[in-house]
Write a structure and sequence with these properties.
Layout: H1 25-38, E1 46-50, E2 65-68, H2 74-84, E3 89-95, H3 96-101, H4 104-113, E4 118-123, H5 158-165, E5 169-174, H6 178-190, E6 195-200, H7 204-210, H8 216-226, E7 227-228, H9 230-234, E8 245-246, E9 248-252, H10 258-269
Parallel strand pairs: 1-2, 1-3, 3-4, 4-6, 5-6, 7-8
Antiparallel strand pairs: 5-9
Helix pairs in contact: 1-6, 4-5
Length: 272
């Protein structure tokens, strides 16, 4: 068996990619495309839906079907795609600003409906494309271009929100833990119902520079230290847990997805 590269999903001549040196989007994209290949996704049966932002630029490089949508609304468009044609593999790429800040309401309801798609949210703790402003996931007391003395708000836990809203599959990885990340994506893409893969990623241009991590390697080492297993996290005392986050599979269940439930209701309405 040959090693999956994912290159067959990339447009010819698209390299080098546009992202800043040290950004984790290239690692994330590579692992996603390797997962596509290992699952035998085709360009014809796959739709990649993106919003606006650095990670949303990904669709420009792909030869799959793609739908580039408005900021914060990618999941609404993707819901329509999947509801109309349930046979498609629908993958939604969003950043923390796009996915759960501006797009937070759509995120809640996509998970609540358990629509059969996979949301890959790259969380770099700020709005990377527009100047490094704070987002809903910016850690409390962190510095951004709009919180220059520290963020007074508490950060949002994307995975906990997805679980509470009813997602079938929830996982978190980092770009430091690359192969583990690919396997989480592959598993999420295989699941029926709403799947969330949160990818914690460095933004050395903005978040890192503003928080004493100006070099990409320093941010990667930070992800290595702070991303821990559920078992290790459980061993920490509450004060020690500050700044750490759990990586790995967090939720895996098999509740009926939206299209399954919709067809049941339609059959009932038609008296069959």
């Amino acid at each position: 068996m040959t090693h999956a590269t994912g290159l067959k999903y990339l447009k010819n001549g698209c390299l080098p990619l546009m992202w800043c040196p040290g950004c984790g989007h290239g690692i994330t994209l590579g692992n996603m495309l390797r997962a596509f290949e290992e699952l035998d996704f085709t360009n014809e049966n796959t739709v990649v839906v993106t919003g606006i932002g650095c990670w949303g630029k990904s669709d420009d490089y792909l030869v799959t079907n793609a739908l580039h949508t408005t900021h914060g609304r990618a999941l609404a468009f993707a819901t329509g795609v999947k509801a109309y044609n349930p046979k498609l593999n629908v993958v939604v790429l969003m950043g923390d600003g796009d996915g759960v800040t501006i797009g937070g309401n759509h995120f809640i309801h996509a998970a609540r409906r358990n629509i059969d798609l996979t949301a890959i949210i790259v969380n770099n703790y700020n709005y990377g494309m527009t100047g490094g402003q704070a987002s809903a996931t910016t850690p409390s007391d962190s510095r951004t271009s709009t919180t220059v003395y520290g963020n007074p708000e508490r950060e949002l836990d994307v995975c906990a929100l997805a679980e509470a809203a009813g997602a079938n599959y929830v996982a978190r990885g980092t770009v430091y833990h690359g192969w583990d990340l690919k396997n989480l994506m592959k598993e999420g893409l295989s699941r029926k119902g709403f799947s969330l893969i949160e990818v914690v990623s460095p933004c050395p241009t903005h978040f890192g520079r503003n928080n004493n991590m100006k070099v990409a390697v320093k941010m990667l080492n930070w992800l290595k230290e702070k991303g821990v297993t559920k078992e290790k996290y459980a061993q920490l005392t509450d004060p020690q847990k500050d700044g750490y986050f759990v990586i790995g599979k967090l939720v895996d269940k098999d509740a009926p997805d939206f299209n399954t439930r919709y067809e049941e209701i339609r059959a009932r309405a038609m008296g069959s």
